[in-house]
Specification:
InterPro entries: D-isomer_2-hydroxyacid_DH, D-isomer_2_OHA_DH_cat_dom, D-isomer_DH_CS1, D-isomer_DH_NAD-bd, NAD(P)-bd_dom_sf. The chain is of the alpha/beta class. It is built from twelve helices and twelve strands. The structure holds glyoxylic acid (2 copies). One glyoxylic acid binds next to loops. One glyoxylic acid binds near residues 81, 82, 83 and 310.
Length: about 350
């Protein structure tokens, strides 16, 4: 191979490797045992000749690495993730490195995990499973693990982009929930879906579902029974959910986060869970991954899973393929899938921000 391409982790499937090796690339996959590579580890990988890198969301891609990649003759970096809060795109641009991410292929898989967490929290699945395994079940009781009925309740979505909209659709169609959402952009296609589904239910003599685009995020927090967070992580969404926002949520609300950990002030959440036993949370991401804030693991009203929202075989192979194509495309001068340098905020159709 003419070009040297590095992947900082082994990735699922073999298609991504074939795509690269078929097109003049030599692929080197880092086999380092430790889960999170440091900047020094990656510098050593890049060495003095490297054309492109496929990296992971656990790595800090900033000034140091992009400068080194440039010096090694590189021109392309792709995150194997849709989120790229771990990437300093400004620094990449300064060194002429194109940056790619992997949207699209993980939309439904990630939304399904958020829906799973919503259901698991509503019906207390994890607590009930632990109870069963502990040998505590000694017969059916009218009050055993009573949870929330979703039908007719309101699902709140904060960030109604690709993933947020897919999640909303699942909860609305699957469980006949009403929608309230907050986003700077209008989710026109989602609104049309809810309207049409409401008409369908009405025609069948059922209570129609409704939608509302909230003027403020606080309206969603106050009105929704199940709230799922799907914003990008940046300065404006850091600790979006904090002590004050938790305080205005319903006492029996369910909060789900499969976006990025720092969107929630996790220490404040632990305090809130302690004093509100009926408030339940489903978390896929954490503020200081891989750690949890003290006390979180002791809360029965919290369900915690290790950042697995995009973890379906099809999606992970798709993410690897896209990441490889991003790097290959830049090296070979083909148009690339997605480049955060010029990617548009996702929406099916965009509209003006609410006044
Ligand atoms: C995973 O967290 C991703 O952003 O793809
Ligand atoms: C519960 O198991 C019921 O049959 O009502």
């Amino acid at each position: 191979g003419k070009y040297r391409v590095i992947s900082t982790k082994p990735m699922p499937g073999s298609r991504w490797i074939r795509l690269l090796t078929d097109q003049d690339c030599r692929v080197e996959i880092c086999t380092e045992k430790k889960t999170i590579l440091s900047v020094e580890d990656i510098l050593a990988l890049i060495g003095d000749r490297c054309d492109g890198v496929i990296g992971q969301l656990t790595e800090d891609w900033g000034e140091v690495l992009f400068c080194a990649l440039k010096r090694a003759g590189g021109s392309a970096f792709s995150n194997m993730a849709v989120g790229y809060n771990n990437v300093d795109v400004g620094a990449a641009t300064k060194y002429g490195i194109a940056v790619g991410n992997t949207p699209g292929v993980l939309t439904e898989t990630t939304a399904e995990l958020a829906a799973s967490l919503s259901l698991a929290a509503a019906r207390r699945i994890v607590e009930a499973d632990q109870f069963m395994r502990a040998g505590l079940y000694d017969g059916w009781l009218p009050h055993l693990f009573v949870g929330n009925l979703l039908k007719g309740q309101t699902v709140g979505v904060i960030g109604a982009g690709r993933i947020g909209s897919a999640y909303a659709r699942m909860m609305i169609e699957g469980f006949k929930m009403n929608l309230i959402y907050y986003d700077l952009y209008q989710a026109t296609r989602l609104e049309k879906f809810v309207t049409a589904y409401g008409q369908f239910l009405k025609a069948n003599g059922e209570q129609p579902v409704t939608w509302k685009r909230a003027a403020t995020m606080e309206d969603v927090l106050r009105e929704a029974d199940v709230i799922s967070l799907h914003p990008v992580l940046d300065k404006t969404t850091y600790h979006l959910i904090n002590k004050d926002s938790l305080a205005i949520m319903k006492k029996e609300a369910i909060l789900v986060n499969a976006s990025r950990g720092p969107v929630i002030d996790e220490a404040a959440l632990v305090e809130h869970l302690k004093v509100n036993p009926m408030f339940r949370v489903g978390l896929d991401v954490f503020e200081d991954e891989p750690y949890m804030k003290p006390g979180l693991a002791d809360q029965k009203n919290a369900i915690v899973v290790p950042h697995i929202a995009s973890a379906s075989k099809w999606t992970r192979e798709g993410m690897a393929t896209l990441a490889a194509l991003n790097v290959l495309g830049k090296i070979k001068g083909y148009p690339i899938w997605a480049n955060p340098n010029n990617v548009e905020p996702f929406l099916d159709e965009t509209g003006p921000a609410p006044a």
